[in-house]
Amino acid sequence: MFNFFKSKKNRAEEEKAVEREQTAADTALNSQANSEIPQDATKTSPTAESEPETTKNVAVQEETKPMGFTSKLRLGLTRTRQNLSKQLSGLFGGGKIDEELYEELETILLTADTGVNATTQLLEDLRKQVKKKGLTDAADLKAALKESLVEMLKPLERPLDTTTSNPFVIMITGVNGVGKTTSIGKLAKYFQSQGKSVLLAAGDTFRAAAREQLIAWGERNNVTVIAPDTGIDKKNDPAAVIFDAINAAKARGIDIVLADTAGRLTTQMHLMEEIKKVKRVIGKAIPDAPHEVMLVLDANTGQNAVTQVKAFDEALDVTGLILTKLDGTAKGGVVAAICGQYPGNPPALRFIGVGEGVDDLRPFNANDFVDALFD
Length: 375
Hints:
By secondary structure, this protein is of the alpha/beta class. Helix content is 52%, strand content 10%. The radius of gyration is 23 Å and the shape is elongated.
């Protein structure tokens, strides 16, 4: 069905172009990292002291100039763009639209972890556009593909409305190591920027450092953290910790509760049953809670993320997704793969993460995402 082994056109030229963009991306990343070094961590060198004042001022302004999220998104998706867009540039450089071109495009999309369902859907839509618009030149397909991708991803673009309840309880879940606790810290900062008060519930009572990590995020954002007691003889029920946190939020008039939970593999049935219990207990604190069940996914896992969505959705009725670590993977096509798995009504992709900074977790926007994938 799929031609995985067809040689691509102008392979040598494409590989050289990819190598050049990788070098440029590494340079940009190094420049960004240098600009984030605290001022007290740097010392003035004799050479710097001898420079004219105007030159130093210009350099400082350039280094401290903040990077907008659109630029960060494009920078963060560099690896995916190299894997996808550069190959497409060679494919869409010109020539006729034929079955060989469609087969090449199919292979490119699959290698970007777009998934079989999404790839099939995109190719069908492209064929319809070619017929409807009378397209004959391959160069016209790039704009058509962007249009199809945006249309496919638009159902994921549903911003989170936290005004429907007070407190608004968000239950955070996911497998081990996807970045749940870090995402909670960034979410706290995001909601605070909207003028919301936030409380954190340290419901991950299994991982030794989870409590301390969440407390550190609370201190960083000046947010209260309800955490279990520590000690060798202490056996804390995660559901009870979150229950107490929600009651504390109600008493204090807090707007949003972010409830951390322990990571678990989808194949560990006893742990999946345990997290169902956590959700039930949350419902006892507030009848219609949790108001959002947010699944955190690591973009590096590619197609495995789709499997995780399905498993957690069956157990918890997932309402929203966070896709982390897009800046470290060439598998950004997994966003389309999720749509392909749920062609009717996919869980909303609430936030995407494209960096290590506290402000690098932002609401998903389909147009911005697709634009960042192409040159």
